[in-house]
Amino acid sequence: MAEEETELSDEQKKEIAKWFLLNAPAGEIQYVAKDLKSVLNADDVYNEAASEAFPVYNKSHMICLGMSGHFGDVLVTSYGELNENEYLDPKTAQVAIVDHVKQVCTEVRPATDEELPSPYIEEYRCALEAEMLKYVSEAYPKGVCSVYCINGKDAEGPGSDFELVVVISAARLSPQNFCNGSWRSIWNIEFKDDIQSLELKGKLQVGAHYFEEGNVQLDTKHECRDSTIFQSPDDSAIAIASVIRHHETEYLASLEESYLNLPDTTFKDLRRKLPVTRTLFPWHNTSQFSLTREISKELGIGK
Amino acid sequence: MEAAMGLMRRMPPRHSETALSALLSLLPQHSSDLLSQVDLPLQVLCDVDIGKEFILCEYNRDADSYRSPWSNKYHPLLEDALYPSSELRKLEIEANDIFSIYRDQYYEGGISSVYMWEDDNEGFVACFLIKKDGSKNAQGRRGCLEEGAWDAIHVIEVGPEQEGTTRYCLTSTVMLSLTTDDESSGTFSLSGSLRRQMNMNLPVADGHLCNMGKMIEEMEGKLRNSLDQVYFGKTREMVCTLRPPAEVAQMRLPDS
């Protein structure tokens, strides 16, 4: 197990630092950053690692930041990314300027026309957003949702394909109870004009970390597909929302089932609660084992 | 050091090996502290004489060789290596025999090894190790785990005898990870590590093996229980907080 004690280059240290930052559980990157800083004891290496790792972490965890003014929250996601620190909030047509390492929004500016979808697309996007906000507020006590157009946003009318993405991000951080968790859903919806169909692709991810006198983490991933028919903006929105609701409810039920299976099947394959004999091990009476062992050895029927 | 332990507490348990080797390379001056405070999944080696696997740890290591509890030989062979006294070796042989039966009854498979050595104050130290691969390709009887590992390390310091009793100080660590994967629900993965201590004064007349065995059995039961009930339970609670099941959501509606 002995490690070679060769001095690491700054580049290697930076890569290690990034690994720690990117593996931080939901909501814990700042704590990891603080410990990492003191382990590294080299501010320039840390700063460089942080400037590279934080944007990746923020986007993959789809963190939610409050915008200044009365614009509400913005999600930091790759779908709304205009450049490294600018993130579109399609709901308010505002662009949030973000400080990744501090995880705050420093400034807000109105989005330009080029950054927004055409009126034709916006009608679909906006209708879906309204349906999704309704669903998210019912299903997620702390959920935030955004709907982006990621393909064909400039289509002026029927006859062209486009793609919307619904993002749901719900995090619950209670470090004082040693518990953090996050739920992330990403739903890609392809509007296929030629076959008048909507193809849905969902990616659901749940993580939880409980660390009071220990370290236990849950990590789940699930992908699913579905389709529905291309209708008016409002009807499409209702259809999509009900497909999403259906799949996410099913998924939650399957998570519950995984938990229910733990004690009697899954966990049992690692260690049983009681021995196969269903009584505690007879430590007081182990001489019988030695005896039977001797006998089986003599008879040549040992394991 | 404190910051390093803080990092270990947050990194995914299934990546503990990567995390530890990263810390070792960043903090070479703390390597012995890190190695003694951070437990890693156990490694095994095959005893060439007996054809049976044994578990490696710091306690059966001398230089780059590891002593097998089955043949008492170092792998690879090592001259002038350390061995327990013949009296302690006798207890070690017996402990390995009985602990194998214990392990088989609780784990339905797996590998175990017990090592003992004299310590400086008239007592001795014993280390009981268990490793089980419960995945469906290995020894998972029920075939439900895509991946499943359980590693247990129990170190017991046995003090000198005083008026018929002896003090036993047990430190146990359990590391586990399990993943299920199926079409309808995707991957579901839990991983974790726990470390606990237990001290007891017990009558020597019952025998060291009996005393140590009972403590380990009780501790393993406790650890398994708190993982199952408390730790997994907390992550489940978290999932239900993030997205409450429909019944709960509906119950809340009248209030809002």
From TrEMBL, chain A:
A molecular-function term among this protein's GO annotations: actin filament binding
Entry's family note: Belongs to the F-actin-capping protein alpha subunit family.
Subunit structure: Heterodimer of an alpha and a beta subunit.
A biological process from GO: barbed-end actin filament capping
Name assigned to this protein: F-actin-capping protein subunit alpha
GO cellular component term of the entry, any: cortical cytoskeleton
UniProt keyword list: Actin capping, Actin-binding
InterPro entries (alphabetical): CapZ_alpha, CapZ_alpha/beta, CapZ_alpha/beta_2, CapZ_alpha_1, F-actin_cap_asu_CS
Stored SUPFAM superfamilies: Subunits of heterodimeric actin filament capping protein Capz
Role description: F-actin-capping proteins bind in a Ca(2+)-independent manner to the fast growing ends of actin filaments (barbed end) thereby blocking the exchange of subunits at these ends. Unlike other capping proteins (such as gelsolin and severin), these proteins do not sever actin filaments.
UniProtKB/TrEMBL annotation, chain B:
Alphabetical list of InterPro entries matching this protein: CapZ_alpha/beta (IPR037282), CapZ_alpha/beta_2 (IPR042276), CAPZB (IPR001698), CAPZB_N (IPR043175), F-actin_capping_bsu_CS (IPR019771)
Keywords: Acetylation, Actin capping, Actin-binding, Cytoplasm, Cytoskeleton
Subunit field text: Heterodimer of an alpha and a beta subunit.
Stored Pfam families: F_actin_cap_B (PF01115)
Family to which this protein belongs: Belongs to the F-actin-capping protein beta subunit family.
GO CC term, one of those recorded: cytoplasm
Chief place where the protein resides: cytoplasm
PANTHER family the record matches: F-ACTIN-CAPPING PROTEIN SUBUNIT BETA (PTHR10619), F-ACTIN-CAPPING PROTEIN SUBUNIT BETA ISOFORMS 1 AND 2 (PTHR10619:SF0)
Record's protein name: F-actin-capping protein subunit beta
Species assigned in the record: Corchorus olitorius
GO annotation terms (biological process): actin cytoskeleton organization; barbed-end actin filament capping; cell morphogenesis
Molecular-function GO term, any one: actin filament binding
Keyword Heme annotated: no
Subcellular location: Cytoplasm, Cytoskeleton
SUPFAM superfamilies, per the entry: Subunits of heterodimeric actin filament capping protein Capz
Keyword Acetylation (UniProt): yes
Biological role: F-actin-capping proteins bind in a Ca(2+)-independent manner to the fast growing ends of actin filaments (barbed end) thereby blocking the exchange of subunits at these ends. Unlike other capping proteins (such as gelsolin and severin), these proteins do not sever actin filaments.
